[in-house]
Amino acid sequence: MTEPILSIRNLVVEIKTRHAILKAVDCVSYDIAPGEILGVVGESGAGKSMAGNAVIGLLSKPFSVADGEIWLKGRRIDNLSREKMRRLRGKEIGVVFQDPLTSLNPLIRIGDQLVETIMEHLKLSKKEAERRAISALEEVGIPAAAKRVNSYPHEFSGGMRQRVVIALALCAEPSLIIADEPTTALDVSVQAQIIALLKRLCRERGTAVMLITHDMGVVAETANRVAVMYAGRLAEIGPVRDVLTNPKHPYTDGLMGSTPAAAIGLEKLRQIPGSMPRLARLPKGCAFSPRCNRATDKCVQDPPPDLTAGEGYAACWYSLKTECTG
Amino acid sequence: MSTLVSVKNLSKVFDVSKPWLNRVIERLPKAHLTATSDVDFDVEENAVYSLVGESGSGKSTIGKMVVGLLQPTEGNVEINGVDLASETDIEIIKQSRTDIQMIFQDPYASMNPRWRVRDIILEPVVASNGDTEGLAEKLLEQVGLAAEDATKFPHEFSGGQRQRICIARALASAPKLIVCDEPTSALDVSVQAQVLNLMDDLKSELGLTYLFISHDLTVVRHISDRIGVLYLGRLVEEGTPDQLFDAPKHPYTQMLISSAPKIDGFGREVDPPQGEIPDPIDPPSGCAFHPRCPIATAKCKSERPALRELDDNRVACHLA
Ligand SMILES: Nc1ncnc2c1ncn2[C@@H]1O[C@H](COP(=O)(O)OP(=O)(O)OP(=O)(O)O)[C@@H](O)[C@H]1O
Ligand SMILES: Nc1ncnc2c1ncn2[C@@H]1O[C@H](COP(=O)(O)OP(=O)(O)OP(=O)(O)O)[C@@H](O)[C@H]1O
Ligand code: SF4
Ligand SMILES: [Mg+2]
Ligand SMILES: [Mg+2]
Q1: What does the pLDDT look like over A80-98, one tens digit per residue?
Q2: Which CATH superfamily, name and number, covers B1-42+55-99+222-258+275-320?
Q3: Taking every annotated instance into account, which residue ranges of this chain make up the domain ABC transporter (chain A) (predicted)?
Q4: Burial classification of residue A94, based on how many CB atoms lie within 10 Å of its CB (0-12 exposed, 13-18 middle, 19 or more buried)
């Protein structure tokens, strides 16, 4: 295997509250290879964004990386200073959030924002940077890019703004992109455009992508591998087709089963009882045990072992096998 | 089966002009936004009729006109033969009001956080001086919560539980019709499944009718008896879920269905659709979909297609 772009090892993100220290991310490990899209899925509060924010060094007060390591292209980055991390963001790591307006300055023309980012990270003259800004906008499919560089963010539609953010994330040619729900706020037709764009850029440039989403359909169509998170832990990880069609963790199985698309022709949707526990009230054994139809005393008593990168696929005492799904 | 809701030629135009003084200074004309235009459909009793479409297509505007939160600019809504906008008999108006309830996407925003769950649920009944003895507890159990929850506050519940509380509140006045505006869009899939199953149970138990509003095609396919597809405020196609998903006739419906991600669409490469929804203040001439339509002709640019019957569907496209 080629050397991964991103390696996360036993990552722990803590939240210090007045009453306790909570683990929003608990001992998570995974790699992303060049040109690979890793989908990170799981329900609201699973810790997907916390893990992403840890990688880009955007955790601030009550949150912190309490343990583990983050490596980017063979270099350890979880212990870098704020300033070094800020430079790495943009140069080596591009970031796309759900709301494009968090990444754009409303008062600055988008061309100037692009030029500023390009000149900060690449040794180019103003002229060259301007030319590059236009080609970056063309590449993400903004029509009449040479004219649109003079527009302000509010003059674009939501979908166009998200394209501008992707252009901004990509203009310094980073090796990793963290996209946190990049299409959640968009209409399906625009979502399809943005996803096709991300896939094309990743294929053409060999960029590694961490795609955080709660939409199993988006993951199926976009990701090569998928990591399923539950209550801060990695429940399951593997090639996307294997995980979605042949889940090994009861949570993944339940998640897939409860999507309406899985119930075509059925009267009722399959549902998982209950909801994800709050971090302050995590069960002592497997965090999924109160909702799991296979849970035994052992599950209630002891948490299943954490997944180590490259080994094992599901953190479950009784991983589902193909033959016992019936 | 009989028709419970009959929507006829419904239109809603919003005045979105700048303030008078700005208009004079900047020499701007008045601006109007047509959110809903000439929409016609019937909802059968004890059925689920869904409205789908992308953001801004006018789904919520129609929902609000059906429950009477907005006045139509033109056309009307009849529920059981009663048109609230023109009815004068106070008793009939009162009865019709309690027959229709609405639930919204964000359950938290539609509750007063300082009220106890009991008071939230009973509010519509108290407002009409109805009998509330033991009602909140009964409704809570009906939606899968516990009678003890009546004394708690909204923040003590998860998103899915709060949506159950909203459903309980909507049920309190024993309505016939519930307009559900994106009721599960803010929920996780596993919780969405719980809420949709609950809604289905209540429909059979209580003989309810739903007008269901959503942008999620998979949800709509699962829950509906009939689906209306909206584009820029107009109904462009209507049919049963099977008809619509197996053989969509309108190019917009086809585009929506093909661009929705599929859970078994591994490595699927879609030709992403062209363009975006146009500005509703200045909609395209002819068929509003023509700038994005892969098969548009000159006629599509100049002439608006009428919604016409085709097999058992209704379609508004020159080429269907
Ligand atoms: N200020 C806070 N105090 C305590 N817990 C918090 C705080 N902020 C976030 N959390 C918890 O951190 C956990 C991880 O949150 P995170 O935002 O990573 O979830 P997520 O998987 O991205 O969810 P979503 O799909 O909603 O974006 C959640 O359980 C959340 O409740
Ligand atoms: N009070 C209002 N004043 C002016 N314009 C409005 C008003 N309410 C809605 N609109 C406009 O009417 C159109 C239809 O809006 P509506 O909220 O019905 O769409 P929707 O289909 O529910 O969209 P979404 O999926 O985003 O909820 C939009 O262009 C919207 O901007
Ligand atoms: S460890 Fe036990 S409780 Fe947890 S998912 Fe596996 S079977 Fe279910
Ligand atoms: Mg998140
Ligand atoms: Mg709406």
Answers
A1: 999 999 989 989 999 999 8
A2: P-loop containing nucleotide triphosphate hydrolases (3.40.50.300)
A3: 6-256
A4: buried
